[in-house]
Amino acid sequence: MERREFVRTAGAAATWTALSMSRVLGANDRLNVGLIGCGGRGSLDARLMRGKLDDLKALAPDSFRDGRPDPRLTNEPRGVEIAALCDVDQRRIDRAHAWAPHAKGYADFRKLLESKDVDAVILATPDHWHGSIAILTCEAGKDMYIEKPVMYSLREARFIRDAVRRNRRIVQIGTQHRSADHIARAAQIVQSGKIGPVYFVRVWNYRNQGNAAPSPDAPVPAGLDWDFWLGPAPGVPFNPDRLIYRNFMDYTNGVISDYGMHRFDSVHQIMGVDTPLTVASSWTHFRTGKVQGDLPDVHQATYEYPGFVLSYECNIVNSHGLGGRTPGMKYYGATGRNDRPHGMAFYGTEGALFVDRIGMEFYPADKEAMDEGKASPSRLEEFHMNEAEPTAMHTKNFVDFVRARKEPFANIDAGCRSTVVPLIGNIAAKTGQKLRWDAASESFADSKEANALLFREYRKPWDLVRFS
Questions:
Q1: Dihedral sign for Cα atoms in the order 235, 241, 245, 247
Q2: What pLDDT was estimated at residue 356?
Q3: Could you tell me if 123 and 134 are in contact, meaning their C-beta atoms sit under 8 angstroms apart?
Q4: 179-391 maps to which CATH number?
Q5: Domain limits of the chain?
Q6: Which of the four pLDDT bands, split at 50, 70 and 90, describes residue 373?
Q7: Lower CB count within 10 Å: N or C terminus of the chain?
Q8: What helix, strand, coil percent values describe the chain, rounded to 5?
Q9: Pair 383, 361: CB distance under 8 Å
C-alpha cells in the first residue's frame, strides 16, 4: 500500500468509524473479534476473551487460586465470537482453526480490517508491526486490545494516540497488572503513606535463555510470507531462530521491554507517577554470535523520578532473581525451590513492600533500627498474600469496556508512558549517556545522538503510514 492509498483508506475509515459508533453493543449482542497474529499469546487472549470457565481452567490454570476462579469471573456467556484470524504464516491460522473453526482466515491484516463483520481486534504481532497496524485498525473503526508493548519506536506513540482519539476507539493495552486487585491495593498502601516515604524502587527480570547455538539460514517454509513477516524491519534472509522474535532486537526491545514494561506500568500505578526525568543505562553482550538471538545478557538501568530512584536489572543467563521465598507463597515465573525471577520492591522508611504479578508481601522495618527507635502507630504489620493471575480478568475487562464505551484502566496513555521507560533505557545504553527525558516533547532534552534514535525508518514498501 502506497502512502497515497493510505490517504484514501483513511478517508473511507471515517465512514466505518461513524457506523461503528452508531452501534453500541448491549449485554446480549455478539462482539465479533478478529485476531491479528495467531501465535501463542494472541491465541490465548482470544480464547480467554470468550470467557468460558472450563476453557479458562484449561488455558490459564493460574487464574484459579486454590482451585477457585477469580470471584469476578463468572460462567455467563460473554457473546464473544472469534470471527477472523490473520497471520502471514498459514500454519498458525491452521492451528488456530482448531479452536475457532468458523473464523475466516486472512493472510493480510488490511483485508481483515476491511471486514464489516469484525467489531474489535486483538493485535498480537511482533512489536515492530504494532505502530502501523494499531493506526490502521483505528482508522478502520475497530476497537483494539494491543498486546504490550504499545510501540517499537518512541516516535510512534504520538501517532498511535492521535489515531485512537481521532477515531474515538476503545483501546486496552495487555498490561494485565492493571486488572489485578492486589496491585491496586499496593497503590493505596504506598500512596497513603502506610510504609512511609519511598525513595528507592527496584524492578528485576531474570531468566535463563539457554545456550542453544545459532541455526544456519534456511529456505522459507511453505505457507510463510517472510517478506511480509519482516515488514518494516530490516530485510534479512530467513532463519528459523528469528521466528522466536523476542530474542532479536530487530523485532523487540529486549527483556526490559518484554517483561519490564509490565512492572514499569505497575510502578507508575503504585507510586502515582507518569514518567521518569533522567535515565542512565548499561548493557553487555557477552554471548552475541554464540547463542540464538542478540539480546543483552545483562542490562541495568537507573531512572530518576520526582522523589525517588528506580533501579532496573535484567539477567538472561540465570533465572534466580531476588531469591528467598516465604513458605506457602507462590511467585510468578518461579521454577526452582528458591528463585524469584520477576518483581518489584518498594523501600519505604517504615518497611519494604515486595510485589509481583500474583501476590505481595510486606516486611516492617525493625523498630530498633529506626531513628529514635519509633515506628508510626499506623504502620502495617507483616503480611503475605497471593492472588489469581490476572490475564483472564483483563480480557473480560476489555469486553466490558467495549460494550460500555468506557475508557479502560490500561488505556493508550498509560500504555505509551510505560513503554517509554524501556525504550529510553535502551537508548541510554546505546549512547552511553545519562539522558534527560522531556515528556512534553517526547524527546531528549540535550542529546542529538539520542534523539536520532527516536525512530527507525520503515523498510519500503512496508512504510504504510506516516510518522513525520
A1: negative
A2: 95
A3: yes
A4: 3.30.360.10
A5: 3-176+397-411, 179-391
A6: low
A7: C
A8: 35, 20, 45
A9: yes
